[in-house]
Amino acid sequence: MRRRRACPPVPTSEFAGFRFPPEVIILAVRWYLRYALSYRDVEELLAERGIDVDHVTVYRWVRRFTPLLIDAARPCRHTPGDRWFVDETYVKVAGRWTYLYRAVDQSGQVIDVLASEKRDLAAARRFFTRALSHGRRPVEVTTDRAAFYPRVLDEQLPAAHHVDDQYANNPIEADHGRFTARLRPMRGLKRLRSAQTIGSGHTFVQNIRRGHYELGVDADLRNRLTAAFTELTLAI
Hints:
This protein is an alpha/beta fold. It has two domains: about 20-75 and about 215-235, no CATH class; about 85-190, Ribonuclease H-like superfamily/Ribonuclease H (Nucleotidyltransferase, domain 5, 2-Layer Sandwich), CATH 3.30.420. The chain is built from eight helices and five strands. It has helices spanning about 20-35, 40-50, 55-75, 120-130, 150-155, 170-185, 190-210, 225-235; strands at about 85-95, 95-105, 110-115, 140, 160-165. A hairpin with a 2-residue loop joins strand 1 (about 85-95) and strand 2. Helix 4 runs parallel beside helix 5 (about 150-155). The chain is globular and about 55 Å long. The chain starts with about 20 loop residues before the first helix and ends with a helix.
């Protein structure tokens, strides 16, 4: 008796099992990451289009699909530059101030973000390990004068020139303002994971709009983000 050849499994869309179509889900996620909106704001905007979605559902969509979109876009991302500006900003999680490590390069691309409960050597190590996974080792790194940065750079980037002069880190400090403005309409974050998701999602949208991904490149600048999210919807 001849055996039947096993067929390869058919890839399952990440949208399988959801009641709403991918276009609605991705629209809600894009609105939330792009604009200074709360989950309830997104619920209201969808209701104006005749789409009845609870704000808790929008929250779950953002949590689930933001990392998937970022992963799908990874092959399209431009390589970061070789001059990095690294700093931390504050985020309130469950009523307590926590830290969000961020880095930008000389062209304004946000390289990575990391939410951390502590501002210490271990957190800085984790952040640089993540940031270096994006494919380029910088020749110059500018930080503030926190005592742990020289040790981390000696360990992970011994050949890089370390700058900690006063005001040298202005590019990343100015960039923090865009993220903190995004947080204002929110009623606070409950978990560190949420801070990481929102931080990563905001960075992702910002980088697309600044042209650091080969996504939506044929669209008008005002429609680049919409075109990019449409492309990514097909990829996940």
